[in-house]
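User: ok so my PI wants both of these folded by tonight, can you help

Assistant: No problem, let's get them done. Here's the first:
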Amino acid sequence: MSGDEMACEHPQQWEAGDVAKDAEGHVGRVMDVRVGTAFLRPLNGGVEWSAPVEELEPAAQSGALSAAVDAANTRTRERGRL
């Protein structure tokens, strides 16, 4: 199975450290999973949010990178440098 095919498969269980995308398209690192709910945090830190595990899908490397770039751009704008 190629890397692209593996990226499309949904893991049976989410574990801390996995990178996932929620139903709204937000990408984050899984911090914890409890009773069908995953707790995610943006890749570059920030406020944690929760999402039902059945709505999560693995984030492709490009999605994770895009999320990191968006977070960096937001921080820059907030500092008034852009």
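One down. Here's the second:
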Amino acid sequence: MSQMIVQAMTIQPYKDGVPHSGIYNGNKQMIHAGTEETGVEITSLDNSYWQSHYIGAKSFQ
């Protein structure tokens, strides 16, 4: 069985602390919970909003 490596990302969109997180999907993309209207989203990390709010990532196997 092949191993899956998951990178969990932490981002800081609103207040102090880490109120939001996502999963790195490769190719400079992350999966995260959007708004009630959009639901789950795949978002480019090239987006200036996410670049300015990115805190870090951790890999899990």
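The mean pLDDT is 76. The first strand starts at residue 6 and ends at 11. Good luck tonight!
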